[in-house]
Amino acid sequence: MISLAGLVTALTAAAAIVIAAPTTNNPTDGILEARQSSPPPPVGVHDGYFYEFWSDLGGNPVSANYSLSPGGGFGVEWDTFPGLTFTFGKGWSGANHNYHKSIEYEANLTLEEGGALFGVHGFALNPLVEYWIADNYSPVFENWVAMLPRQDKGEVTTSSGVYRLYLEVRTGFGYPQGVFRLYWAVRQTKRSSGIINTGEIFSAWASQDMGLNRHEQMLLSVEGWIESRGSAQVEMLGPPGGN
Ligand SMILES: *[C@@H]1O[C@H](CO)[C@@H](O)[C@H](O)[C@H]1NC(C)=O
Ligand SMILES: *[C@@H]1O[C@H](CO)[C@@H](O)[C@H](O)[C@H]1NC(C)=O
C-alpha cells in the first residue's frame, strides 16, 4: 500500500496523473492562496516548504483535492475508491537540510474509512529506506499493521510520546534496487496535534539496527489507500521551511 513518493517518481520518471482541484473551503480560512493558482502542480515549493502530491498509477485515478495554505499548512480531501494510494505532504527535500527537526503541527483529521494515516513520511538513500512516524491512522491501518510481515522492535518512549517500532523489508514495487526497508514508528495513542522530534525517533530506530544514512526527503504527510475516504486540514507551526 505504501507509496514511494518522490523518490520513485524521480527514479522511474513516472508522471503522476493528478485529478486535483482546490477544495471549496471558505476563502477566508487560508486556502485563498491555493485557489488563486488552481490547481497547484503536484510537486513544488510553496512558502519555503517542499510539497508533493503522489499517487500510484495502478489503474484508476485517485480523487484527491489538495490545497496549500501558508507555511507548512495544507488541506486534502480524498476518496480513493476503488483503491488507489496517494500521499500528500509538505516539508523538506534534498540533501542540504538538517533532518533532525521538531515538527509542531495542529490538524483536523478524518481518517475513518479505508486505509489512512498521518505523520512524518521520509526517505533516506544508500541504502534506500522509506519511513513513517505515524501519529494518527484509521482502524484499517491498525489491522494492517498487526498483520504486516515485519519485525516488531518494541516500544520506545520519546518526548513525542510512546511509539511502537517495526522493520519491514519489501521487495519489488518497481524499485530499481529490488529490496528496500521500511521503518515504522506508530504512536500508541493517536493524536491530532503536538510536536514530533524526528531525531529521537531516528535514534530509537538506530538502536535497533535501523539506521538512516543520507536523508533525502521528509514531509508532514497524509496517505490514503484501500477505499479510503477522508480529509485533513493541517497547520505546521514549526520549524520554518527552507532549511
Ligand atoms: C474534488 O473536487 C471536485 C470538484 O469540486 C469534486 O467534484 C470532488 O467531489 C472532490 N473530491 C473529493 C474527494 O472531495
Ligand atoms: C480545525 O478546526 C477548528 C474548528 O473549526 C478550527 O478553529 C481550526 O483552525 C482548524 N485547524 C486547522 C489546522 O485547520
UniProtKB/TrEMBL annotation:
Superkingdom of this protein's organism: Eukaryota
Pathway: Glycan degradation; xylan degradation
GO molecular function: carbohydrate binding; endo-1,4-beta-xylanase activity
Pfam families: Glyco_hydro_11
GO biological process, one term: xylan catabolic process
Signal peptide stretch: 1-20
Keywords (A to Z) from UniProt: Carbohydrate metabolism, Glycosidase, Hydrolase, Lectin, Polysaccharide degradation, Signal, Xylan degradation
Catalytic activity reported: Endohydrolysis of (1->4)-beta-D-xylosidic linkages in xylans
Enzyme active site: 130 (nucleophile), 223 (proton donor)
Documented EC number(s): 3.2.1.8
InterPro entries in the record: ConA-like_dom_sf, GH11/12, GH11_dom, Glyco_hydro_11
Domain GH11: start-end pairs: 37-236
Protein family per UniProt: Belongs to the glycosyl hydrolase 11 (cellulase G) family.
Protein name (record): endo-1,4-beta-xylanase
UniProt organism field: Sodiomyces alkalinus (strain CBS 110278 / VKM F-3762 / F11)
